[in-house]
Amino acid sequence: MTMSRPFRIALVATCALVLLYLILPILIIAPMSFSAARYLSFPPPSLSLRWYQEYVGNPAWMQATRVTLTVAVLTVVIATPLGVAAAYAISQSKWRIMRLIHITLLLPLVVPIIITAVGIFFVYAKLGLAATMTGLVLANVMLGLPYVVISVAAGLQSFDATQEMVARSLGMNRLRSFFVVTLPQIKPSVIAGGIFAFISAMDETIVALFISGGQYQPLTKRMFTALRDEIDPTIAAISTLMTAVSFMLVLVATSRSKKGA
Amino acid sequence: MLALAMPALLVMLLLVVLPVGWLTWQSVYHNGFTLENYRRIWSEAIYWRSFALTFEISLLVTLLALLLGYPIAYAASVAPRRWSIIILALVVLPFWTSVLVRAYAWLALLQRTGVINQVLREIGVIDEPLALVHNSFGTVVATLHILLPFMVLPLYATMQQIPRDLMQAGASLGAGPMLTFWRIFLPLSLPGVLAGCTLVFVLTLGFYITPELLGGGRTIMISMLVSRNVELYDQWGAASAVGVVLLVAVGLIFFAVSRFIPLDRVLGQK
To answer: What span, in angstroms and rounded, lies between the C-alpha atoms of B198 and B254?
Structure first.
């Protein structure tokens, strides 16, 4: 499209500023975490690993890290097969009720999270699931499921279902034909869905604020509580690590799904 | 086939439908049917003020997101492929950083001794540090930052589908670039504008982390009314009623928008 020169300059300048706004917070966290100073100053007066040592040396942070990793791994292990099964059922069935089920599975993206969190808190209080590992994992499975369903449903859409029919006509049963023919071809979208569920569980804060407690508090809950009181640079170190893990996982997820498509 | 979807469906029924149902029930039932909780929301100023403030902030964040997001999406849709990939990657990058981490970064950037105040003092623009955080300003800056990708992505998806020959046709008929943009491109991008605005507005209505951490206790949004009633005052009924009002508002907005564009188009572009 033709654009006048001043218009093009204005557009480029606007974009540069907005993009700077978008990435500034991410750019600033890592340098802060390597600063030797107690108070934030930019650029840091001198570099050190002080805040990382503080993080690793603190039993409360370490316990929270174990909780977060356990919850995230269990969430992936449970949400991925459930999501794949549901997405497969949705893609195969023409029933109207499946559309309703599909929408229900995406509900966590629509209902404001604060409402879900408080509602779960009420239900857990009755069921005795508050401040338990089981409760925390279940809630994160619910929050991660939509990502698996969306990702796998998209993968199944580009997959040719007649291949599975061919396998079945050659005598394979339905289960085997799914594992031998379909699953290998939608593997990238399954992996991507699982990775997004992992990141969702790792970053989840609001539900954990209400339902987690005692020794089963994830990192994000401890970070939130610490942030309310004061700005502790240890959080910059933890944030840097969390962001690094997220980015690496997203890189894996996107490169995988490109290969598949 | 139904059996395959059952486990996932059960999770949703147990952890979304049942909790929301419970919340709704609790808002009208306390030793008998009562509308006391709703009467309080209706009559007490603190609730009114919070609802008004939340709508104001949501509107402001939506408008700013449109203002900042439209040029970005436009640039990504007209730029050469290599550039549009870079632009989109930078838009999505913050998406995959924890909301909590970004709230923390904004605290560090905006506080009195923070990076922005330091820089402004160094270059002599200000003498006294500005109050950039622990108020509505800080809340808006951080919330906008988190929700901006939700505006850019639907906008970009819509703009990408606008056929380029339409603009060429306009140009060949003698319309200048401004006129072709105004009469052809802009109207065709409106479904994306509606989708993006809906997402950002609805998400801001229920936002919790940024107002709680950057609002300094003065910017009480709806979600904070809910959490305070539960955590500080043990008023589960009141918290539930506020939650129901928020849920109804969100539902009505989605319903209204679905009359213009299909809902899966609004949500599918996440």
So the answer is: 8
